[in-house]
Amino acid sequence: MRLVQVTIPAGKREAILRTLDDEGIDYVLTEETSGREFTGVVSFPLPTTAVEPVLDRLRETGIDEDAYTVVLDAETVVSRRFDKLEERYENDEDSDKRIAREELHARARELVPTTGTYLVMTIVSAVVATAGLLLDSPAVVVGSMVIAPLIGPAMATAVGTVVDDREMFREGIKLQAVGLAIAIVAAAAFAGLARVTNVIPPGTDVLAISQVRGRLTPDFLSLAVALGAGVAGAVSLASGVSAAIVGVMIAAALVPPLGVIGIGIAWGLPGTVLGSTVLVLVNVLSINVTALVVLWYRGYRPDHWFKEDTARRATRKRVGALVAAILVLSVFLGVVTYDSYRTAAFEQEVQGDVEELLDRPEYEQLTLLDVQFGYDDPVPPREPTNVTVVVGQPPDSESASLAAPLDRRIDGALGTLDVPGTIVDPGPVDVQVRYVEIESV
After folding, report:
1. Which residues contact 20 (CB under 8 A, 6 or more apart)?
2. Which fold has domain 340-437?
3. Three-class DSSP category at 391
4. Full-model pTM
5. Distance from C-alpha of 147 to C-alpha of 126, rounded to nearest angstrom
6. SS3 (DSSP) at 227
7. Residue 200: which region, alpha, beta or left (left: phi > 0; alpha: psi -120 to 50)?
8. Among positive and negative, which fits the CA dihedral 143, 144, 149, 150?
9. Helix (H, G, I), strand (E, B) or coil at 216
10. Does residue 163 contact residue 102 with C-beta atoms inside 8 Å?
């Protein structure tokens, strides 16, 4: 529930009080004695869902933006008339279960930090994320998400569009662009410093680090994360609940890939930079478009009817542009998803062939421990370069010749997969067998 306070302009007292009486609202009128253009202040409690329609009706009486309107949280209201009013709005099917437009606008502004604070927190979160990636520490990476101030600009962009606040929209766009750019610079500088100072041992394969490797090949599942983050951000904002946890989700879609971009720049890996950049762009666009669509669907419009057409055109234009950009970038996601499918099919085929071969009587003393696959590039389209089969055997036993039959079977697997939807022209694949002695007691 909310406590609303409205200053009454001269000549508007009767119209305002009549409107409140018609709505069945309890109010308290305080005389204004400062000698200015206002004659009083009226205070009244309202259910959260009633704030916007009541303020719209008061605006029809002639209250403009020069009059002060303050909306406060109210813990408890003891009043029979208020109970009836609350029940009326709860049972009204046409009543939107959301906070008022004015509250939404104010909350969006509160989520946007000052420029200095935003830049500092963005740099810190990017550096911490890069450190967490290089340390292969999920806990540190999550910590970088908690401090990232990325939800504010994204929500400000969406709110600025639906309520036709061009200044807020431009500020949100600017902060998002500047934040992404400075995060990449900070991540690259920190990763470069770590490499030059040998904090990361020379020769370390950064692409083999699990926290890094997981962000190299974004697929359509990554798109689902970003879409969910945008929906959750808009719903939390419109519902009046805390957006802190949702902010972590939005940061999860952006901060780690930004760190991977910095690592790719520092280590001179253009494929890594490309894959992570596409992931960041898709996530940013997805968060913005879903937040925009959700807020418009929830019924948020400008406060003046003559601005609604302008806001509608702007919303359609921006949603169309964002969707078009996402579709273009999704081609890369489609390639990654397709590549994941075909390599998974190849690996499953090889795994089955190895198990079938080891089921033969001549290999009964061998135990399959692992099958490892190597590829020519971490960024799709990937082609297999080597297959390593690790088998266990009893001590002092004679090693059975396994490499040659495995090589023939893997060549056959490549042949069967050389069709649409699978690996095409994979080239030679090196097959190795490692024997490990296993002693049982």
Report:
1. 27, 42, 44
2. Alpha-Beta Plaits (3.30.70)
3. strand
4. 0.74
5. 10
6. helix
7. beta
8. negative
9. coil
10. no
Please indicate whether the domains covering 2-97 and 340-437 agree at the CATH topology level.
yes
- β-strand pairing of 384-393 with 430-437: parallel
Closest among 18, 77, 21 to 48, alpha carbons compared: 77
Contact 254, 148 (CB under 8 A): yes
Does the 2-97 domain belong in CATH 1.10.10.10? no
Q: Which amino acid is at 294?
A: V
Cα(first)–Cα(last) distance of the chain, in Å? 71
pLDDT tens-digit series, residues 259-315: 999 999 999 988 888 888 888 998 899 999 998 888 888 888 776 666 778 888 888
Q: Which of 16-20, 370-374, 427-431 has the lowest mean pLDDT?
A: 427-431
- The tokens 């542009």 sit on which residue? 321
For the record, the structure tokens of 97 come out as 């279960």
Q: Where are the domains of the chain?
A: 2-97, 104-303, 340-437
Ranges of beta strands (E only) in 136-245 are none
Q: Report the 10 Å Cβ neighbour count for 317.
A: 11
Q: Which amino acid is at 287?
A: I
Residue 351 near residue 359 (C-beta atoms within 8 A)? no
Beta strand pairing call for 2-9 and 69-73 = antiparallel
**Quick check: 282 and 218 in contact, CB under 8 A?**
yes
